[in-house]
Design a protein that fits this description.
Length: 362
């Protein structure tokens, strides 16, 4: 098995067809697609270095490690780490491996020990549990410094019919949904609108940005879309995914005014619920839950089999879904006293820096 390193963005772009071909032969999520990761790099790759590793066997790519190399300076401390492209915007990260998984992982790790760039640790966030299991066959000079559950990700296996979906809900929750819909229909003209198409996505995304920020700012907090670069990234993703049929973008209108938006992705028979926006002044109608119900009904009619609420087990998600997956963080360091000491001191330092940032309101 041979490992090839990709550092140039043009070389990354040229991998589109081979990337898609490899994905057809392995289990993966939308966050491992070339479309998601190349768009992410275009928007956030500044001051980072591509470190994509290709595992080739008999002149065929059988595995990809979509890594990047980052040098961070925080309050005077310099750290050098390797992590997945897409972090932290991707809800799931993983290697893309079609065959010989353990051998590919071992080869990737061995190759990293030979690269020119000095690194302090490898931080793999939002990975599935089975990936950690396969890391038992790693090079002797690399050890696991930390492995723990980072997020729970609730999901719902979609039934065959809308009636089965509704009957499967908690009786009290089902009653509250009916009451909310009846109340809003009595007081407003209610309309569900889809903006997933190439001609409509811009309008839907603008509604999402506005409502998401409005909700979080009403709580005195910064929303996800406070930064222009985040808005630009998701606008580009929405444009690209709308042309592929992967975008799921919906709104509830009350008297022709958007009061709730839901932004997600449709991919390989699954729906990934990424973000939402809700006008807090319409809270008594529970527009967020009404919109989720509408989207679930649409997913069932379109033949999708799963609705993934992604990372975070917030109470509203658990009203809909009782199943969940665990996302893990895996931190790898070089063996030896000094790497272990540096890792411990760095973790303490960053914890203190995080507290200081909160104190300063940054």
């Amino acid at each position: 098995m041979k490992i090839k390193e990709i550092n140039n963005f043009s070389d990354f772009l040229s991998l589109k067809e081979e990337w898609a071909s490899l994905l057809k032969n392995c289990d993966h999520t939308i966050f491992s697609t070339w479309e998601w990761l190349s768009t992410w790099w275009k928007c956030f790759g500044r001051n980072k270095k591509l470190l994509i590793l290709l595992a080739e066997d008999k002149n065929k790519i059988i595995g990809i490690a979509p890594f990047m190399y980052i040098v961070n300076k925080t309050f005077g401390l310099t750290t050098r780490k390797i992590e997945f492209i897409g972090t932290p915007q991707s809800d799931y990260n993983n290697f893309i491996i079609a065959e010989k998984e353990e051998e590919c992982l071992a080869s990737f790790m061995h190759y990293i020990t030979t690269i020119e760039e000095p690194w302090d640790y490898i931080e793999l966030k939002e990975i599935p549990e089975n990936t950690i299991v396969h890391f038992q066959k790693r090079p002797d000079n690399i050890k696991i410094a930390k492995a723990h559950i980072l997020h729970k990700c609730p999901y719902l296996i979609l039934p065959k019919s809308v009636d089965a979906l509704v009957k499967g809900l908690n009786a009290k929750f089902r009653k509250n949904l009916k009451r909310s819909q009846k109340l809003i229909e009595m007081e407003h003209k209610l309309e569900f609108v889809e903006y997933s198409h190439p001609q409509l996505f811009k309008e839907g995304m603008k509604q999402l940005f506005e409502l998401h920020q409005k909700r979080w700012e009403s709580r005195g907090e910064r929303g996800v879309f406070a930064r222009e670069e985040i808005r630009n990234f998701h606008m580009q993703i929405a444009e690209r995914f709308s042309t592929l049929g992967w975008l799921g973008l919906y709104s509830i209108l009350a008297d022709d005014k958007a009061i709730a938006c839901l932004y997600g992705f449709k991919y390989r028979s699954k729906f990934y619920f990424y973000l939402s926006g809700i006008d807090p002044t319409y809270g008594k109608y529970s527009p967020g839950n009404l919109l989720i119900l509408f989207v679930l009904q649409k997913c069932i009619k379109e033949g999708l089999t799963e609705f993934d609420f992604l990372r975070g087990d917030e109470p509203y998600k658990c009203r809909w879904a009782s199943l969940y997956r665990n996302n893990f963080t895996l931190t790898l360091i070089k063996r030896g006293f000094l790497p272990s000491l540096r890792n411990k001191l760095t973790r303490i330092y960053f914890f203190q820096a995080h507290l200081l940032r909160k104190l300063l309101g940054k």
